[in-house]
Design brief:
Elements (H helix, E strand, L loop, with lengths): L5 E11 L23 E9 L2 H22 L29 H10 L41 H4 L2 H11 L21 H4 L2 H10 L18 E3 L5 E3 L5
Antiparallel strand pairs: 1-2, 3-4
Length: 240
């Protein structure tokens, strides 16, 4: 059948099947079946089969339950922002990446390998501080100020100050007397044997000491043939 929900219920009987829809069969007896091709054919008796109805109804109920469940579920949040495929940042610009914002640097570093922070070079370790140089020992205060009163040092300075400033600054020095090469008083009692010829000459010239005795002249009269004190004959012409 057309619906497919009917089955044969018995032997076929002659039934009306519509104009021109009959069929030819061999009959041993003649029956009137209508004009032309006939209006009757042998059709098996059919009875109603509700299996198709039950299956179709179950499928419909199941679809209805699914629709109700979908309607009761919370819907997803919709937005009216039109979808776009544009990137948030253009990482191929020719400007200096150092001038980019932090967001652009982060995006381009993660997606294009550009704008990434440069590795920082650790600062070199500073050398250890140089120990301070020891302070020079403090000079003790000078006992005298050789610049004070230098214009009247001869009368205003003490002998101690004169001696100190002469030894440390070359000021206040008194003019020493010239050193005598010989002391004409030393050893004068034995100057003839103890003094050197140089000392004798110097002391004789500067102190009138150590001078050689002046030779004396002796004049004789009388017989030239006299006997001298040494008991020798002496010619008076040779006597002095």
């Amino acid at each position: 059948g057309v619906c497919g929900c009917e089955v044969e219920a018995g032997p076929a009987v002659m039934s009306y099947v519509g104009g021109g829809c009959g069929d030819y069969i061999q009959e041993t007896t003649y029956k009137y079946v209508g004009c032309g091709a006939g209006e009757f054919d042998v059709v098996a008796t059919r009875k109603a089969n509700y299996t198709c109805l039950f299956v179709g109804g179950g499928v419909g109920v199941l679809v209805l339950v699914i629709i109700v469940v979908l309607l009761l579920l919370p819907g997803s949040t919709t937005t009216t922002t039109p979808l776009t495929t544009a990137l948030p940042f253009n990482c191929n610009t020719r400007d200096n990446p150092d001038m980019w914002s932090i967001a652009k640097k982060t995006y381009c570093c993660a997606n294009a390998g550009k704008g990434c922070p440069k590795p920082t070079t650790p600062a070199p370790t500073p050398p250890p501080p140089t120990p301070p140089k020891p302070k020079p020992p403090t000079q003790p205060p000078l006992p005298y100020d050789c610049g004070a009163g230098v214009a009247n040092w001869e009368a205003g300075w003490s002998d101690a100050k004169k001696a100190w400033c002469c030894a440390h600054g070359g000021q206040g020095c008194t003019t020493p007397k010239p050193t005598q090469p010989y002391d004409c008083n030393a050893g004068f009692s034995n100057w003839q044997a103890g003094w050197s010829p140089g000392k004798k000459a110097w002391c004789c010239q500067h102190a009138a000491r150590g001078c050689a005795p002046v030779a004396k002249q002796c004049t004789l009269w009388g017989d030239p043939h006299v006997i001298s004190f040494d008991q020798m004959n002496t010619n008076k012409e040779q006597a002095y």
